[in-house]
Structure to design on (323 residues):
Protein backbone atom coordinates (compact mmCIF):
# COMPACT_ATOMS: atom_id res chain seq x y z
CA UNK A 1 0.00 0.00 0.00
CA UNK A 2 1.21 3.52 -0.57
CA UNK A 3 1.18 6.27 1.98
CA UNK A 4 -1.50 8.80 1.17
CA UNK A 5 -0.66 12.19 2.66
CA UNK A 6 -1.76 15.69 1.84
CA UNK A 7 -0.35 19.13 2.51
CA UNK A 8 2.46 19.90 4.91
CA UNK A 9 3.42 16.66 6.55
CA UNK A 10 5.08 16.04 9.91
CA UNK A 11 6.50 12.73 11.06
CA UNK A 12 6.67 12.35 14.84
CA UNK A 13 8.71 9.34 15.93
CA UNK A 14 10.17 7.62 18.97
CA UNK A 15 13.82 8.47 19.74
CA UNK A 16 15.12 4.90 19.89
CA UNK A 17 16.55 2.67 17.13
CA UNK A 18 13.11 1.36 16.15
CA UNK A 19 11.73 4.91 15.96
CA UNK A 20 14.68 6.10 13.86
CA UNK A 21 14.47 3.10 11.50
CA UNK A 22 10.69 3.46 11.13
CA UNK A 23 11.19 7.15 10.34
CA UNK A 24 13.87 6.26 7.79
CA UNK A 25 11.46 3.91 5.96
CA UNK A 26 8.64 6.46 6.03
CA UNK A 27 10.84 9.35 4.87
CA UNK A 28 11.97 7.28 1.89
CA UNK A 29 8.32 6.79 0.97
CA UNK A 30 7.65 10.52 1.43
CA UNK A 31 10.68 11.68 -0.59
CA UNK A 32 8.59 13.76 -2.99
CA UNK A 33 6.55 15.39 -0.22
CA UNK A 34 7.78 18.22 1.95
CA UNK A 35 7.91 16.13 5.10
CA UNK A 36 9.70 17.06 8.30
CA UNK A 37 10.45 14.76 11.19
CA UNK A 38 10.46 15.42 14.93
CA UNK A 39 10.80 13.46 18.15
CA UNK A 40 9.07 14.58 21.40
CA UNK A 41 11.15 15.90 24.31
CA UNK A 42 13.39 12.91 25.05
CA UNK A 43 12.08 10.96 28.02
CA UNK A 44 8.48 12.16 27.60
CA UNK A 45 5.91 9.62 26.39
CA UNK A 46 3.44 12.45 25.89
CA UNK A 47 3.44 15.82 24.14
CA UNK A 48 4.00 19.10 25.93
CA UNK A 49 1.51 21.91 25.37
CA UNK A 50 4.14 23.64 23.26
CA UNK A 51 4.61 20.56 21.05
CA UNK A 52 0.86 20.18 20.53
CA UNK A 53 0.55 23.80 19.40
CA UNK A 54 3.64 23.47 17.22
CA UNK A 55 2.56 20.20 15.56
CA UNK A 56 -1.00 21.44 14.98
CA UNK A 57 0.22 23.59 12.10
CA UNK A 58 0.68 20.55 9.85
CA UNK A 59 -1.99 19.09 7.54
CA UNK A 60 -0.90 15.50 8.02
CA UNK A 61 0.83 14.09 11.11
CA UNK A 62 2.34 10.62 11.02
CA UNK A 63 3.13 9.14 14.42
CA UNK A 64 5.57 6.23 14.42
CA UNK A 65 6.52 3.88 17.27
CA UNK A 66 5.12 6.19 19.92
CA UNK A 67 1.99 5.35 21.93
CA UNK A 68 1.09 8.91 22.83
CA UNK A 69 -1.83 9.44 25.24
CA UNK A 70 -5.16 9.19 23.42
CA UNK A 71 -6.06 12.73 24.49
CA UNK A 72 -2.90 14.09 22.81
CA UNK A 73 -3.71 12.21 19.59
CA UNK A 74 -7.31 13.45 19.63
CA UNK A 75 -6.17 17.04 20.12
CA UNK A 76 -3.86 16.78 17.10
CA UNK A 77 -6.71 15.17 15.14
CA UNK A 78 -8.85 18.28 15.58
CA UNK A 79 -6.98 20.08 12.82
CA UNK A 80 -4.76 17.51 11.13
CA UNK A 81 -5.08 14.13 9.52
CA UNK A 82 -3.40 11.53 11.75
CA UNK A 83 -1.73 8.33 10.59
CA UNK A 84 -0.29 6.04 13.29
CA UNK A 85 2.20 3.19 12.80
CA UNK A 86 2.81 1.41 16.07
CA UNK A 87 3.13 -1.88 17.90
CA UNK A 88 2.75 -0.70 21.50
CA UNK A 89 -0.21 -1.59 23.65
CA UNK A 90 -2.60 1.21 22.80
CA UNK A 91 -6.38 1.53 22.70
CA UNK A 92 -7.99 1.37 19.28
CA UNK A 93 -8.66 4.98 18.22
CA UNK A 94 -11.66 5.01 15.87
CA UNK A 95 -11.35 8.52 14.52
CA UNK A 96 -7.77 8.33 13.19
CA UNK A 97 -5.88 6.20 10.70
CA UNK A 98 -4.29 3.73 13.08
CA UNK A 99 -2.00 0.96 11.84
CA UNK A 100 -1.33 -0.91 15.05
CA UNK A 101 -1.99 -4.65 14.81
CA UNK A 102 -1.41 -5.01 18.58
CA UNK A 103 -4.28 -2.60 19.27
CA UNK A 104 -6.42 -4.92 17.13
CA UNK A 105 -5.46 -8.02 19.10
CA UNK A 106 -2.42 -9.35 17.19
CA UNK A 107 0.34 -11.18 19.08
CA UNK A 108 3.36 -9.07 20.14
CA UNK A 109 5.74 -11.69 18.70
CA UNK A 110 4.25 -11.17 15.25
CA UNK A 111 4.95 -7.42 15.46
CA UNK A 112 8.25 -7.04 17.33
CA UNK A 113 8.82 -3.51 16.00
CA UNK A 114 7.09 -0.53 14.47
CA UNK A 115 9.57 -0.81 11.59
CA UNK A 116 7.91 -4.12 10.72
CA UNK A 117 4.42 -2.56 10.86
CA UNK A 118 5.66 0.14 8.44
CA UNK A 119 7.51 -2.31 6.20
CA UNK A 120 4.51 -4.63 5.95
CA UNK A 121 2.16 -1.72 5.22
CA UNK A 122 4.43 -0.46 2.44
CA UNK A 123 4.94 -3.96 1.05
CA UNK A 124 8.71 -3.64 1.25
CA UNK A 125 11.28 -6.41 0.90
CA UNK A 126 13.09 -7.28 4.13
CA UNK A 127 15.90 -4.80 4.63
CA UNK A 128 18.45 -3.70 7.22
CA UNK A 129 16.30 -0.96 8.75
CA UNK A 130 13.23 -3.15 9.20
CA UNK A 131 15.33 -5.74 11.02
CA UNK A 132 17.30 -3.22 13.11
CA UNK A 133 14.01 -1.93 14.53
CA UNK A 134 13.26 -5.43 15.79
CA UNK A 135 16.76 -5.96 17.18
CA UNK A 136 16.54 -2.57 18.90
CA UNK A 137 13.28 -3.33 20.67
CA UNK A 138 13.91 -7.00 21.49
CA UNK A 139 17.73 -7.19 21.70
CA UNK A 140 18.84 -10.79 22.43
CA UNK A 141 15.25 -11.92 22.98
CA UNK A 142 14.62 -11.69 19.22
CA UNK A 143 16.50 -15.01 19.02
CA UNK A 144 13.49 -16.68 20.65
CA UNK A 145 11.16 -15.38 17.94
CA UNK A 146 10.34 -18.34 15.70
CA UNK A 147 9.19 -16.23 12.80
CA UNK A 148 11.79 -13.46 12.67
CA UNK A 149 14.98 -14.99 14.04
CA UNK A 150 15.44 -17.21 10.93
CA UNK A 151 14.90 -14.11 8.75
CA UNK A 152 17.51 -12.12 10.70
CA UNK A 153 20.02 -14.98 10.64
CA UNK A 154 19.63 -15.40 6.91
CA UNK A 155 19.91 -11.66 6.31
CA UNK A 156 23.15 -11.54 8.31
CA UNK A 157 24.58 -14.49 6.40
CA UNK A 158 23.71 -13.01 3.01
CA UNK A 159 25.20 -9.64 3.92
CA UNK A 160 28.39 -10.83 5.59
CA UNK A 161 27.35 -9.71 9.07
CA UNK A 162 26.89 -11.33 12.45
CA UNK A 163 24.19 -10.58 15.02
CA UNK A 164 26.68 -8.63 17.14
CA UNK A 165 27.06 -6.18 14.23
CA UNK A 166 23.33 -5.52 14.42
CA UNK A 167 23.51 -5.02 18.18
CA UNK A 168 26.38 -2.57 17.62
CA UNK A 169 24.30 -0.62 15.08
CA UNK A 170 21.42 -0.42 17.55
CA UNK A 171 23.81 0.81 20.24
CA UNK A 172 25.08 3.52 17.89
CA UNK A 173 21.56 4.65 16.90
CA UNK A 174 20.39 4.60 20.53
CA UNK A 175 23.42 6.66 21.60
CA UNK A 176 21.66 9.76 20.26
CA UNK A 177 18.82 9.65 22.76
CA UNK A 178 20.98 8.30 25.56
CA UNK A 179 23.17 11.38 25.32
CA UNK A 180 19.94 13.41 25.37
CA UNK A 181 20.61 14.91 21.95
CA UNK A 182 17.15 15.54 20.47
CA UNK A 183 18.49 17.22 17.34
CA UNK A 184 20.83 14.32 16.65
CA UNK A 185 17.88 11.92 16.94
CA UNK A 186 16.00 14.01 14.40
CA UNK A 187 18.99 14.09 12.04
CA UNK A 188 19.60 10.32 12.28
CA UNK A 189 16.92 9.05 9.83
CA UNK A 190 18.27 11.40 7.17
CA UNK A 191 21.83 10.14 7.67
CA UNK A 192 20.81 6.58 6.80
CA UNK A 193 21.25 6.84 3.06
CA UNK A 194 22.70 3.60 1.79
CA UNK A 195 21.11 0.24 2.42
CA UNK A 196 24.28 -1.02 4.06
CA UNK A 197 25.62 -0.88 7.61
CA UNK A 198 28.46 1.58 6.92
CA UNK A 199 26.34 4.73 7.44
CA UNK A 200 25.79 3.57 10.99
CA UNK A 201 28.96 1.72 11.94
CA UNK A 202 31.27 4.44 10.66
CA UNK A 203 29.44 7.47 12.06
CA UNK A 204 32.13 9.24 14.10
CA UNK A 205 29.79 11.16 16.38
CA UNK A 206 27.77 8.09 17.32
CA UNK A 207 30.94 6.12 18.02
CA UNK A 208 32.15 8.88 20.33
CA UNK A 209 28.75 8.89 22.07
CA UNK A 210 29.05 5.19 22.80
CA UNK A 211 32.46 5.73 24.41
CA UNK A 212 31.14 8.56 26.59
CA UNK A 213 28.13 6.49 27.62
CA UNK A 214 30.31 3.55 28.60
CA UNK A 215 32.45 5.79 30.81
CA UNK A 216 29.40 7.32 32.46
CA UNK A 217 27.84 3.91 33.06
CA UNK A 218 31.00 2.76 34.79
CA UNK A 219 31.04 5.85 37.01
CA UNK A 220 27.39 5.30 38.00
CA UNK A 221 27.84 1.57 38.65
CA UNK A 222 30.71 2.42 41.02
CA UNK A 223 28.60 4.75 43.20
CA UNK A 224 27.60 2.98 46.42
CA UNK A 225 23.87 2.11 46.64
CA UNK A 226 21.68 2.49 49.72
CA UNK A 227 19.76 -0.38 51.22
CA UNK A 228 16.20 0.36 52.34
CA UNK A 229 14.73 -2.82 53.91
CA UNK A 230 16.16 -5.15 51.29
CA UNK A 231 15.56 -2.84 48.33
CA UNK A 232 18.56 -1.39 46.51
CA UNK A 233 18.15 2.35 46.06
CA UNK A 234 20.55 4.42 43.99
CA UNK A 235 20.38 8.18 43.65
CA UNK A 236 22.32 9.57 40.72
CA UNK A 237 22.77 12.78 38.81
CA UNK A 238 23.49 12.32 35.13
CA UNK A 239 22.60 14.34 32.05
CA UNK A 240 22.41 11.09 30.09
CA UNK A 241 19.19 9.18 29.56
CA UNK A 242 20.53 5.83 30.75
CA UNK A 243 18.38 5.17 33.80
CA UNK A 244 16.68 2.08 32.33
CA UNK A 245 19.98 0.53 31.21
CA UNK A 246 21.56 1.28 34.59
CA UNK A 247 18.61 -0.12 36.57
CA UNK A 248 18.66 -3.32 34.50
CA UNK A 249 22.37 -3.74 35.07
CA UNK A 250 22.11 -3.27 38.83
CA UNK A 251 19.13 -5.65 38.98
CA UNK A 252 20.98 -8.36 37.06
CA UNK A 253 23.97 -8.15 39.35
CA UNK A 254 21.98 -8.13 42.59
CA UNK A 255 18.78 -10.06 41.72
CA UNK A 256 16.93 -7.76 44.14
CA UNK A 257 14.37 -5.04 43.63
CA UNK A 258 16.08 -1.84 42.49
CA UNK A 259 14.99 1.79 42.53
CA UNK A 260 17.06 4.41 40.72
CA UNK A 261 16.38 8.13 40.98
CA UNK A 262 18.10 10.51 38.56
CA UNK A 263 17.97 14.17 39.53
CA UNK A 264 20.17 15.33 36.63
CA UNK A 265 18.14 14.82 33.44
CA UNK A 266 15.18 17.21 33.66
CA UNK A 267 15.35 20.67 35.15
CA UNK A 268 11.96 20.54 36.86
CA UNK A 269 11.48 16.81 37.38
CA UNK A 270 13.31 13.67 38.42
CA UNK A 271 13.40 10.33 36.65
CA UNK A 272 12.46 7.34 38.79
CA UNK A 273 12.92 3.80 37.57
CA UNK A 274 12.02 0.55 39.32
CA UNK A 275 12.75 -3.06 38.47
CA UNK A 276 11.79 -6.08 40.52
CA UNK A 277 12.49 -9.79 40.03
CA UNK A 278 9.38 -10.91 41.89
CA UNK A 279 6.89 -8.08 42.49
CA UNK A 280 4.31 -7.26 39.82
CA UNK A 281 4.79 -3.62 38.87
CA UNK A 282 1.44 -3.19 37.16
CA UNK A 283 -0.48 -2.48 40.36
CA UNK A 284 2.22 0.00 41.35
CA UNK A 285 1.99 1.76 37.97
CA UNK A 286 -1.76 2.09 38.41
CA UNK A 287 -1.26 3.46 41.90
CA UNK A 288 1.32 5.99 40.72
CA UNK A 289 -0.93 7.11 37.85
CA UNK A 290 -3.84 7.31 40.32
CA UNK A 291 -1.73 9.62 42.47
CA UNK A 292 -1.29 11.87 39.45
CA UNK A 293 2.24 10.90 38.38
CA UNK A 294 3.36 10.30 34.82
CA UNK A 295 4.21 6.63 35.03
CA UNK A 296 4.30 3.66 32.71
CA UNK A 297 5.95 0.31 32.20
CA UNK A 298 5.38 -3.41 32.18
CA UNK A 299 5.06 -6.36 34.55
CA UNK A 300 8.65 -6.07 35.77
CA UNK A 301 9.51 -2.38 35.30
CA UNK A 302 8.10 1.02 36.08
CA UNK A 303 9.39 4.36 34.87
CA UNK A 304 8.07 7.67 36.17
CA UNK A 305 8.74 11.36 35.75
CA UNK A 306 8.14 13.17 39.01
CA UNK A 307 8.11 16.88 39.87
CA UNK A 308 11.18 17.35 42.09
CA UNK A 309 9.22 18.31 45.21
CA UNK A 310 7.26 15.04 45.02
CA UNK A 311 10.12 12.60 44.47
CA UNK A 312 10.60 11.71 48.16
CA UNK A 313 6.89 10.95 48.51
CA UNK A 314 6.82 8.61 45.52
CA UNK A 315 10.08 6.98 46.59
CA UNK A 316 8.52 6.20 49.98
CA UNK A 317 5.39 4.84 48.28
CA UNK A 318 7.46 2.59 45.98
CA UNK A 319 9.77 1.22 48.66
CA UNK A 320 6.79 0.40 50.86
CA UNK A 321 5.18 -1.43 47.95
CA UNK A 322 8.36 -3.44 47.32
CA UNK A 323 9.12 -4.50 50.88
MN1 LIG B 1 9.25 0.09 18.92
Amino acid sequence: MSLDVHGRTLLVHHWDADGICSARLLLEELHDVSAENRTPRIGNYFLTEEEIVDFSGYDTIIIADMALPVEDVLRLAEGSEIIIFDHHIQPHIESVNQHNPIAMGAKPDDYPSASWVVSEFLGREIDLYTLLGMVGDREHRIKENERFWPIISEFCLENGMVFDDMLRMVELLDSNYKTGDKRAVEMAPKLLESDGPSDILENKEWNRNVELLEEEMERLMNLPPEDISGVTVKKISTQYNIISTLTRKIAWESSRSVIVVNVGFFEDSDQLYVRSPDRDMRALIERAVGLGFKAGGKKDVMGAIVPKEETEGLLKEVSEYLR
User: Anything to note?
Assistant: The CA atoms of residues 288 and 295 lie 6 Å apart. The pocket of manganese (II) ion is lined by residues 18, 65, 87, 113-114, 137 (CB under 6 Å). The first helix runs from residue 17 to 29.
